[in-house]
Design a protein that fits this description.
single chain; 4-stranded mixed β-sheet; globular
Length: about 80
């Protein structure tokens, strides 16, 4: 069984989250990886059939709403996540 998604909050750890953890999670077959990017006030969502890397990346700014692919009835407003 694999996890549906992992959520990270990144400020000083952004490079590590994008360059190290992303590949670890994809290799572990995590279906979806979210990074709350505090440096650019947005949510980065990585999806796609994981292998060694995610195939898709989408960026959601303030004012947008996103749903985890494994939980289509749930929705999250990016504005509510950001300080």
């Amino acid at each position: 069984m694999t996890a549906e998604f992992i959520f990270e909050v990144a400020d000083t750890s952004l490079a590590k989250d994008r360059e190290v953890k992303k590949y670890i999670y994809a290799g572990s077959r995590i279906r979806e990886y979210w990074i709350l990017n505090l440096n650019h006030d947005c949510l980065e969502v990585y999806t796609g059939p994981p292998g060694g890397d995610y195939e898709n990346r989408a960026t959601f700014p303030h004012g947008t709403t996103v749903s985890p692919s494994g939980f289509p009835d749930a929705s999250v407003r990016v504005t509510d996540l950001l300080p």
